[in-house]
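User: Could you write out the 3D structure of this protein bound to nicotinamide-adenine-dinucleotide? I've included everything you need below.
Assistant: Certainly. Input first, then the structure.
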Amino acid sequence: MENYDSLILKQKAFFRSGATKELSYRIQALEKLREAIRKNEQSLFHTLKEDLNKAEFEAYATEIGVVLEEIRFTLKHINDWVKPEKVKTPVSHIGSTSYIYSDPYGVVLIIAPWNYPFQLAIAPLIGAIAAGNCAILKPSELTPKTSELLRKMITDLFPEEYITVVEGGVEASQALLAEDVDYIFFTGSVPVGKVIMEAAAKNLTPVTLELGGKSPCIVHHDANVKLAAKRIAWGKFINAGQTCVAPDYLYVHESIRDEFLQDFQLATHELYGAKAIENPEYTRIVSKRHFDRLLTFLNNGDMFMGGGSNEETLTIEPTVLTEITWKDPIMQDEIFGPILPVLPYRELSDVIDGIHKHPNPLALYLFSENESIQQEVLHQISFGGGCINDTVYHLASPYLPFGGVGSSGIGAYHGKGSFDTFSHRKSVLKQTTKFDLPFRYPNVKDGLKKL
Ligand code: NAD
């Protein structure tokens, strides 16, 4: 196993030099990063095509455009974010003032997954830079072309002691986890999240865990069915369902089930054509292993649409399975592919009970025009984040911190949330020396003393 001792020492020394804490240094780094992303746009289209057959439109919308927007937003607000925040001071502390300083942690380790291999490595890095840290990026081994491009880009831009990329799989990840870094930001699966947290516990390293799980989507009988069908088809099949916040499964009210399914099929055909696996713009499954796992679900329940696949191109048609129950294999774990199981319901309370029996979802989507139904679901179910009458979109707002709860994750990021994630909030009380309050000391009987 490779040893990253000297790399960590170099980064720690560079951090201690204070360079990365300078506001001008952070701004310059973000500007350089933005410039490099723009310059490498065509290369990124190319590697994302090779790694996942991502179409340019999707690659720009979900990988490149998202991080450029995150940089723009960060540069717009960073001057305010870095200022110490003055807060109230209680009367009992008369004479003093109180501040919260945002302090960078030091060396942060960012471990990224393969499904949005560029965005999920760079978006946290933006927060780490803005907060004044050094960083080590470990992208996924399953998207090697994008990981290699990331390494080249970062190596051209920054000295190793500031920001660097370590390529490799589980071994590289574990070797880095064996080091004493100051913060770990991990995006990936729930089981690996547990491995990360265990490794972090050894040095009491703080973590953010952006994990996954089964995210429900509920279509109530009063929903705008056509629009729901379109927005769910988009959120489910973008990136061929390999999205952490994709609607994993659907609860549809029984009275509108057939209407919804017809509209859903139409919407899917409008997005990708009647034969998506022949569409050159349709994303593929990342590996043969993931492809084979997904195929095992195709005999669950009844096939309403799709089901076709191509082993050579590793593509699976947008598929809908009906007559599904919680006992089916497809309902045991996150699907992470273009297969949508549908469960009908009559009472909303059954939906809420069903979700409560399972770990807190990363995302939840509800389609309903009724405010009290919306409030009931929001009030009763704990989930990371989500949308009313849409899917996935919440993730793209810099004003909404993005993260899970329970087994879907710890912590959140995006926008100011990223800056806060990579900063320790250091509380400081500045006391006056003009006078001294006697009653804090034992056995003092006289009043306020002039110093
Ligand atoms: P993964 O957990 O298998 O791998 C993620 C990273 O961890 C990779 O860089 C990998 O090399 C490394 N890794 C894998 N096994 C490891 C181990 N035993 N020890 C140390 N490091 C290890 O996840 P994945 O398959 O790349 O991504 C899919 C999962 O990520 C899904 O569960 C999805 O929901 C989740 N995800 C979550 C978010 C989010 O923002 N919450 C975003 C994307 C993906």
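The CA atoms of residues 129 and 399 lie 19 Å apart.
User: Perfect, thank you.
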